[in-house]
């Protein structure tokens, strides 16, 4: 808050600036009085770069005023009201309604994260605001908790600071070589310098929902380079607190904008949760191209070790089923692959996108281990497996796998059963969350929980510890993959941990046990705990890989020995 009487002056002959109530990268916000109408208002004094050439400075002022006037044309209860746009001493001022209340960022900082029901309410209000703006051709481009106000007394959600909004048809700041926005909430297609659309604001909403549920953006890192790397390259892991809204968060944080959840579907899912306490699975089909070239749109995620342990559907012949560990040769560790051409091109695009901010994005990425995970490029998003620390990328343009890295482990917590799942307490001494409608099917040492029609299978196997531990077990399984899983390909193994225990993650693609079953993808996590070996995997048709990854994440995260 500013001091009363600080730098009192009158703008445009009617707006008396009385106290500074906020400051940001785009300028200063003042509490002011409209002396003509006798009402309190907020006046945003936009900061301009005095070092710019005169003509460029003039163009920037004109663009700012034009965009501000477009926002003034928006009328919606969850969008800040813009009363006036004026210019004085070649400096733009935006006159807005004065909201009595702090920002969403301040609420999180002072009172901590909110629960899923409140997050859904906030999300619905922001979606309504974004849909109104997008229908008018206005993009926000800086959606984050600091730009969301909560009105005192009513808790009305108000989206503000369209100061860097882009009006359809206008030249964007990105096109002039400058980068605008907050990297932790910025969509990867904007990072790569591609002209953004409404779906970029929806990505920001996904990051915002994670922040209000957990306290910080999932892309928060200790350096700008780390943030950029997290947004563009790292596997995305929504916080545990996002479990009740996981289909929405995962859908919004989809790196390929063509596959990203749209506003209408996100609203439907959030509204269903508000009404029933459960979030249904989205059935939205990919949308038409928006001009951003997806890197792995049609390439399935490399599945996990489940394929070797998978069993054919009832009535179909399968491969021999000897102990998958015994008498198998251990495979030598793979060398890190060369960086792919597309990864290099993306880094170059990042340099262009960040050049106006005086930052070499490529250098930042490199200093933070930004070799793209050994050559990976932005992928169709899949959350990092909860409870594990390895990162296993998917095969991209290059068939070479990325090098997994161990980063951190998750502290053991009581399992949270997400909406749309049930807790299966198995008679073999374990429990885990499985999707509602999945039925139990024991097969020898293995237990399966299968979807209706048996297309997706969750497998569990408990056994004694093996020589060499989980990593050796998974490497031997990978070595034998072609003989146990028809059409085995894209197989890779990553050393990791699970709740502090040694673990390994295996992922691969294969052709299924029959032509009818078709190509499949498998995720498999194996870990050793108290002298026992635990194995959890999910196998699914390649067309259902996104859904299968969610089932796998939830199964691993909620697995508990009874």
TrEMBL record:
SMART domains: S_TKc. GO terms for molecular function: ATP binding; protein serine/threonine kinase activity. It comes from Streptomyces capitiformicae. Residues 272-324, 370-422 are annotated as: Disordered. Residues 303-313, 377-397 have a biased composition (Low complexity). The lineage of its organism: Bacteria, Bacillati, Actinomycetota, Actinomycetes, Kitasatosporales. Keywords: ATP-binding, Kinase, Nucleotide-binding, Serine/threonine-protein kinase, Transferase. This is non-specific serine/threonine protein kinase. It comes from the Bacteria. It is an enzyme of class 2 (transferase).
